[in-house]
Amino acid sequence: MSHLEPERLVLLALGEETLDQHETGHLDTCGRCRSEMAELRDVAGLGRQTQRLRDLPPPPEHVWQRIRAELAATDRATPPPPVTLHTDPPSVPASAGVRPQPAPTAGRQAPRRAARPRRHGWGVTAAVAAAAAVVAAVAAAGGTALVLRDEPAASPAAACSAGAPRVSLEALPGAPPGAGGYACLVSVGGERKLVVHAEGMPAQPDGDYEAWLLDSTSLQGPGLRMQALGVMGAKADQELTVPGALDLSKFNIVDISAEPHDGDATHSGRSLLRGTLP
Amino acid sequence: MAATAVSSTSVEHSTDGDDGFADLFRAGDERALRQAYERYGPAVFHLAARGLASTTDAEDVTQATFVAAWLGRESFDPSRGSMLGWLLGIARRKVVDQIRATARDDRITDSVRRLAPADRVETPPDRVVDRLVVADEMAQLPGEQRRVLELAFYDDLTHPQIAAVTGLPLGTVKSHLRRGMARLRSRWEVDGVTFGARAAGASGAR
Q1: How do residues B157-201 score in pLDDT, each as one tens digit?
Q2: B38 close to A (CB below 8 A)
């Protein structure tokens, strides 16, 4: 006997007709028709169970609010923009640049374990910013626009002034090809700021870049000391506040690291750029 | 009249129905996230509610699913299955995670009366996924075909009865049944294999 006709199989699977003797005999010997039949019966069974799935109630509205708030807080609703959006080379004459120190390797071995004097000020700022973003997202609930990024308040364009010596930031092994930049110290309203200009750092889907100052006197010792300055934003030039008490004669190594969004606030151990302040 | 003759064998297959907005979603257009939520949020929430005892947990899983989907949107591959199937695959894993977390908390807080994790699952999430995917495909069938299947599934009518109710020729009814069933089956197989229980180690966002 030949295989069962497709339409016949469907009617049988729907249960509106029954197998005759020949068909039963065929199914006993034909694995193909048997599995066709079994699958169609499965589909018919699933189809019958779909009736009450047609008008499912939506989740409560606050679920959507929470989704927006969580995305705003994680600040990752849109892919992180590149650290630098333009590619103009540093316009500094070569003679004005500070000769970069060789990348200190000792400090790269166990920075995570050693990192201690940590980001009190910055952490608080970040928490406040995240909270503000949540509030903003919830407040905007009625509108169509999502508030998914907490943009920092407009600040004067950071730049290294003519008088501020620039230290070039050199790519370490593992940095993206073409990565580099420079940094300088400036004083703004009596506060010391580190201006960082980084280039060739593509957006990371699951992380940020963060700026640190490393204590060069601790490089050879058992514990590397470092100060987090903050996450690098989307602008070409970042102005990061240096804590007032920080001794820049010791904390003079500028370090840009890749930080995954893993909830671990300590240095990831993945340094990409380094330079040493004069 | 020849111009109205349409090949009735074409357009047999389309698992997406998300078309344009799936692309927008992958590209990071936030409006597409809202669209995905409005369209598939009910199914995700249903899956979560069926798998979890507490409504709060189901809401949490729904939230976690859409957050994970958005953050991992680049891993959505429309060629491997539908967006609904992908979302339900994420939700299914979140449900399992939630069950495990609950079981773990129970062990910690109440090691005496704890339930084995399996006892807490009231409906295997995979069967719910299958049903939701098939329901979604049903909703996307051409109107007449869908009507015929609904009469067969929900009202348990035979094909002569369906022909009588709808006024369609018997052959057309049988053809609708066969094509409609084929489409449901192929959607079920695509999404089930890719995102369901049969997808061992399915990739994508978690």
Answers
A1: 999 999 999 999 999 999 999 999 999 999 998 887 666 554 433
A2: yes
**What's the pLDDT band for A80 if we cut at 50, 70, 90?**
very low
Q: Identify whether the C-beta of residue A133 lies closer than 8 Å to the C-beta of residue A75.
A: yes
Residue A15 CA to residue B153 CA, distance in Å, equals 10
Which residue, among B166, B131, B169, has the nearest Cα to B148 in the 3D structure? Answer: B166
Give me the sheet containing A271-276, strands edge to edge: A226-231, A207-215, A251-260, A271-276, A167-171, A180-188, A191-199, A237-241
- Assess B155–A contact: CB distance below 8 Å, yes or no: no
pLDDT tens sequence across B71-102: 999 889 888 888 999 999 999 889 888 887 77
Quick one: pLDDT at residue B42?
96
Nearest CA in chain A to B174: A7
Please tell me which of the candidates A44, A60, A144 has its beta carbon nearest to residue B59: A60
Q: Angle, nearest 10°, between helix axes A6-14 and B170-195?
A: 80
| Interface probe, candidates B31, B61, B63, B145, chain A, greatest A C-beta count within 10 A | B63
Backbone angles phi, psi at A254, to 5 degrees: -85, 130
Output the pLDDT for position A113.
38
ipTM rounded to 2 decimals: 0.77
> In this structure, are residues A167 and A60 in contact, taking their beta carbons and an 8 Å threshold?
no
Cβ–Cβ under 8 Å, residues A237 and A158: yes
pLDDT of B117 strictly over 50: no
User: Do B62 and A57 count as a contact with CB atoms less than 8 A apart?
Assistant: no
A214 close to A225: Cβ distance less than 8 angstroms: yes
Band of pLDDT at residue A95, cut at 50, 70 and 90: very low
Strand intervals (E) in B68-183: none
Q: Which helix (H) or strand (E) holds A46?
A: helix A31-48
Q: Are B170 and B159 in contact (CB under 8 A)?
A: yes
Q: What is the pTM of this model?
A: 0.52
